[in-house]
Amino acid sequence: TGYITFDEGYGNTGSCKSNITFIDGEKGILRYRGIPIEQLAEQSTFLCSAYLIIYGELPTETQLNAFRSKVAGAARLHENFRHHFEGFPSKAHPMAVLSSMLNSLGCYYPEMSSNNREQDLELFDDAAALLISKVRTIAAMTYRMSLGLPFNFPRKDMRYVENFLHMMFTEPYDEYEVSQEVADALDLFLLLHADHEQNCSTSTVRMVASGGANLFASVSAGVGALWGPLHGGANSAVVRMLEEIHASGDDGSRFIMAAKNGKARLMGFGHRVYKNYDPRAKIFGEAAERVLKALGREDPLLDIAHHLEQAALKDDYFIERKLYPNVDFYSGIVLKAIGIPVEMFTVMFAIGRMPGWIANWKEIAETSNKIHRPRQIYTGYTKRDYVPMADRG
Ligand code: CMC
């Protein structure tokens, strides 16, 4: 197999050419379509950044308004979706529900999910807006279902995040009042997750797309890839870790020792590409402080996170391996402050990452006809003969 290069986990393999997102891991730089994440976090919104990521340019006011109303108009799910929800046990994991629902959604729009590239691309704008909109409705309905609460219909008069919070938290006789701080924090969360080049889930979306599969099937596969604790599942794992540390009375020092001895992994630390501070972690660290202050709340988990961060950044084990906080280190504290339950954290990541998955599907559908098909280094038996049952020992 001499001609096959072995690169475990593709750490040094460029699987595609892309002009969507740029990362310089050594310097801690992240840009969507050339624009630094810090500028977008400060001046843009999730939907505006989603447009930028998908279509390559910042929208004009008219373009943004048209995109917003397309997304807002697509928020409702077909009534028959109730039956899909009823088919899941109440303890079903929301990521399992989300992945199934996104694929099911394609069945309601066969013309957009034809697996005929030309046709799927022709209807791409509708499919993209529909997915960005409905992923949020599915998430909220999953939450309501898990608690046995009635579904809340989306409202056309509300903006993207406000509408989501309304669908999550409004009770029949008690309208949910969305505070500006909470809406801003959630919008920032989604914006910071919107794309991140060839991470595990986006590469999965591209892999599925490379075979010619439609957008719905491709993003549904992306949700499965995102679920694991080393990828999107890290945000809930961080909060669980912080809660355990808090419950044990440790300030984080014992946990750092355990991580150094290989007995635990400091969740929310380390990254395949960033060998420096993940720029999103910096923004989230500040956002966590801001949102807790604005809501007049304290969270002991934030102090533990600060302590862990300071201890790790001074420790040779972490310094030698260039392990810094990543996007997930503080994002869970922000979500917790907003009132999102821990089991839903990775679903929130999926809502945020939807534009990135969509843009990567579009890029591959428009520019490449080459199926992704990695090779392997075979390590099994050489040729051997079949043994009849009677002769097996
Ligand atoms: N805690 C303790 N040790 C670590 C950690 C950590 N969080 N991350 C890496 N290491 C060690 C690892 O044990 C290895 O040590 P040694 O060389 O002695 O064997 C070395 O650092 C290199 O680690 P690796 O696992 O080979 O690195 P990778 O590039 O394959 O993995 C990672 C990257 C993100 C999966 C890993 O750092 C990790 O598991 N972090 C914790 C989970 C996490 O926060 N994931 C979210 C990633 S960012 C958002 C996203 O992609 O969804």
Automatic annotation (TrEMBL):
PROSITE patterns given in the database record: CITRATE_SYNTHASE
Keywords from the named record: Acyltransferase, Transferase, Tricarboxylic acid cycle
Active-site residue numbers: H271, D328
Pathway: Carbohydrate metabolism; tricarboxylic acid cycle; isocitrate from oxaloacetate: step 1/2
GO CC annotation terms, alphabetical: cytoplasm
Gene Ontology terms, MF aspect: citrate synthase activity
Catalysed reaction, written as an equation: oxaloacetate + acetyl-CoA + H2O = citrate + CoA + H(+)
Domain of life, source organism: Bacteria
Entry annotated with the keyword Transmembrane helix: no
Gene Ontology biological-process entries: tricarboxylic acid cycle
Entry similarity comment: Belongs to the citrate synthase family.
NCBIfam families: cit_synth_I (TIGR01798), PRK05614.1 (NF004126)
Protein name per Swiss-Prot or TrEMBL: Citrate synthase
UniProt organism field: Oceanipulchritudo coccoides
Lineage, broadest ranks: Bacteria, Pseudomonadati, Verrucomicrobiota, Opitutia, Puniceicoccales
